[in-house]
Structure formats: C-alpha cells, structure tokens
Fold:
Amino acid sequence: MAQSITDLKVGVVLNHSNAPYQIISNSFMRTAQRKPVMRTKLKNLMNGNVMEKTFIAGESFEVADVGRKTIQFLYKDSDNAYFMDSENFDQFSFTLESLGDMANYLQDGKEMTALMYEGRPISIQLPPKVELKVVETTPGIKGDRAQSGTKIAIVESGASVNVPLFVNEGDMIRVNTETGEYVERA
Structure:
C-alpha cells in the first residue's frame, strides 16, 4: 500500500478493479481550500483499455506486483506473435492487435522483456532502439544531404519509417521503438 499521491509516477503499475493498470500520464493539482489531487491516465495491461482516474490526497491505492522476465521473439503469423521464456523455454503468444505498433519492431530471435502478473505474461517491453534493414525505398541521388528532407523507407519488419534522403536499400538503420522515428544509420 502506498500512502502518498506523489508515489503515482508514470510507469508505476497499480492494482485497480482486480487488474494491473500502468500510469501513462499524471498531473498534480492543488487548488485553494481543497485537498491536492493527482489526475492520472491508466492503461489496463490485460486488455489495453485506457481510463482516467483522479486520486485525492490520503486515498489509498495498491502498487501491483509486476515482475520482468527475459524472453525471445520466435515468429509471427497473420494473427499472433509467438515468444519463448529464456529460462524454462515455455512458449506463449500475444495477438498482433494487443501488441499494436510494437509488432512493427519484432525481429526473429531478438531478446526483450516480458511483464509478468500473477505468473503469466501480460505485455512486452521492447528495447528503446532497434536496428532494422531497409528493404525498399527510392534511390538516393548524388548531393543528397542529411538536412535536405526525408523519404519513406520500408524496413524488414514491414514498418514504414521516414528516413533522410541519403539512406538506400540494404542500409541498416536504428529506429526509436517508442516514436517510430529514424535515429541514425547503424
């Protein structure tokens, strides 16, 4: 049990309505003659729903016991992505719909982290940046510079990324998995 609303930080996982909710945004408000409040946006880690909840100073809340485990991505088909626990080799899957944009950055054999709740995986966490090979883009032209604009490139996972004009097919690039933006050439 946490006692202070200042413990409600982005990334903290709470038990709410018998489900794990992660705080994705928060804002502290204090007005004259009223108790301070923390307005939060919570994401249900089981089904992905987002809700808003306001916590009043003195209100109790329970921090969820969420563990982390190293997993390996195996493959994906038209509906699911399949993973393997690196410790006991158990396999499990998530629907591509539940993974959302994260599915665009999955690479066969790469390790990542799974969030575990009550002994079962509920979500994955990708590394902040991944290296992907450009498989399709318009060719670069002599004189293209880093500051002269961008073009669309399709990477090996099927995602579309805006890249500088000097990036060509076959180049390895780093992509930020949170924003989907080009970072640098690898």
